[in-house]
Amino acid sequence: MMFVSPRSYMLLSLAAAVATIVLKTWAWQLTGSVGLLSDAMESGVNLVAALGAFWALSLAAKPADRSHHYGHFKAEYFSSGLESVLIVVAALAIIHTAIDRLQQPQPLEQVGLGLAISLAATLLNGLVAWVLFRAARRFDSITLRTDAHHLLTDVWTSGGVVLGIGLVKLTGLTILDPLIAIGVALNIVIIGWKLFHETASGLLDRSLPDQEQQLVENVLASYETDDIRFHALRTRVAGSRRFVSFHVLVPGHWSVRAGHDLCERLEHHIAGALTRTHVLTHLEPIEDPKSWDDQGFRWEQG
Question: What kind of fold does domain 210-301 have according to CATH?
Fold first, then answer.
């Protein structure tokens, strides 16, 4: 399945969220299971999160303007941050509802039909999560990846709920329904926290992953000679975009064209090796001591 942009994938996620809300609410009404109620609540969070993700991707797709010279790519982090918080909120709501059911156990009804409906919704979420994971790798989008994780947590939630209801039917122990719902909710809290940490790291302008950082350093090393040196390498990630900057030191007697041609080769080489990368170079005379003042790690001096 192929779509032309990350936003089109979010439309798929929105449609899946609406469909699973309808299915899981129906299953809950049939059975009276607190586990299925928590499952339906999780799908409601999916819908809100997908709406936020669609907005963020729409904003991130806007071109650079006078107020945002580097574009709007960081909008994706606001969406992933919202979604990670919503995951935790949904998990806490599930725990609250399950505790009430622990105090007041209730028998389940029409279990077979309710489980069948819940499984259909689970399969739908699993399929959409798989599609979104593939799209996240294709577009290098944290928003799509976060939404895929969110849907995957919904799949795990549904799996735990179905298991719990099945055990209740086999053993007659109604307490298993809320206990399994609580266990699944705690797992969701952990996943939500991991996603929130990734979002916070992105907002703090984290550098490229180690593998990509090493790739850039290897490219520079392949050009380095006695007359050509590099320093002040800085990298950062903003949504699906990468930014790389460094200083290029060459002999002062070089012509402007020679220095410019070298910088052009470097920029094209790195941009070709790392997709969606903006490369900025700064040319300096290698024999001038002032050229060596900024080695790239002196921000603490202001």
Answer: Alpha-Beta Plaits (3.30.70)
